[in-house]
Write a structure and sequence with these properties.
Number of strands: 8
Helix content: under 10%
Number of helices: 0
Structural class: mainly beta
Low-confidence stretches: none
Mean pLDDT: 91
Shape: globular
Order of helices and strands: EEEEEEEE
């Protein structure tokens, strides 16, 4: 499937790319370009992720805010919103 990346966020140590039509985010090492992890949401991702020292936050059309472990990309928790985030 063709990918339509639409936004990215980076703090110099991790680059997180949102892929709108594949409903996922992919994290890369910005120095090497090597893929670190990917997360699949249940709805399109319109905006860039937010990076913190321990987590990456991603809003999705699936009406959830997802908190991912920054190192592994594993889902730590979700928050149900009132609409698309």
């Amino acid at each position: 499937t063709l990918a339509r990346p639409n936004a990215f966020a980076s703090d110099g140590k991790l680059l997180v790319l949102s892929v709108f039509d594949q409903s996922r985010v992919v994290a890369f090492d910005p120095m090497t370009g090597k893929r670190r992890w990917a997360f699949q949401a249940d709805g399109w991702i319109f905006q860039s992720a937010a990076n913190t020292p321990t987590q990456v936050f991603v809003g999705s059309q699936d009406e959830h805010l997802h908190a991912l472990n920054r190192e592994t990309g594993k889902l730590e928790w979700t928050f149900k919103t009132e609409g698309r985030t």
